[in-house]
Write a sequence for this structure.
């Protein structure tokens, strides 16, 4: 699929759900632009919130596993607004805590990860450690965006593995 498909998905969700997800549409648009021209079999998303990024990711993969430690009422509204093809690609999983997330991610096979979860240095370190096995990740909120959300920058700037490529407000990490 293409960035045009992702744009249509975002527009249809915003039209159906309204202001509840509109604030996220610029992040979703930026995400689609970063993924343009790419295709993966399975994407893992950690940190889902309302689910709009899951919908965009589903335009670039056969399957999206999305994991969060909290349920969000808007997520089901977003998924209900998706067409059947996109919705069928998303497997949304809510886990009770980080320990459960660790066990689940270790059992999954995926070839790309999108990280937009906890933004503390400790949380980003956990997610980075769990997902780097796929060899390619995109992090949201790089560089630091204030309010204690500097963990992404701290972890990626300190890593000695792979190559980090900033593309604000995202950063790619790729294995060498």
């Amino acid at each position: 699929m293409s960035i045009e498909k992702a744009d249509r998905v975002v527009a249809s969700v915003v039209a159906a759900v309204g202001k509840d997800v509109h604030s996220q549409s610029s992040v979703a648009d930026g995400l689609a632009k970063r993924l343009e021209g790419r295709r993966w079999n399975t994407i893992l998303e950690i940190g889902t919130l309302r689910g709009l990024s899951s919908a965009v990711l589903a335009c670039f993969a056969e399957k999206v596993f999305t994991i969060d430690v909290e349920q969000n009422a808007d997520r089901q509204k977003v998924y209900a607004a998706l067409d059947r093809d996109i919705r069928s690609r998303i497997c949304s999983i809510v886990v009770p805590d980080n320990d459960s997330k660790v066990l689940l991610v270790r059992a999954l096979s995926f070839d790309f990860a999108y990280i937009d979860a906890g933004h503390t240095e400790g949380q980003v370190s956990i997610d980075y450690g769990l997902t780097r096995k796929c060899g390619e990740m995109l992090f949201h909120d790089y560089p630091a965006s204030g309010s204690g959300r500097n963990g992404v920058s701290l972890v990626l700037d300190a890593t000695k593995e792979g190559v980090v490529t900033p593309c604000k407000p995202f950063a790619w990490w790729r294995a060498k």
User: Anything to note?
Assistant: Residues 59 and 102 are 26 Å apart (CA to CA). The beta strands are 40-46, 61-68, 90-94, 112-115, 136-140, 163-167, 170-174. The domain at 3-174 is CATH 3.40.50.150 (Rossmann fold). The chain has one domain: 3-174.
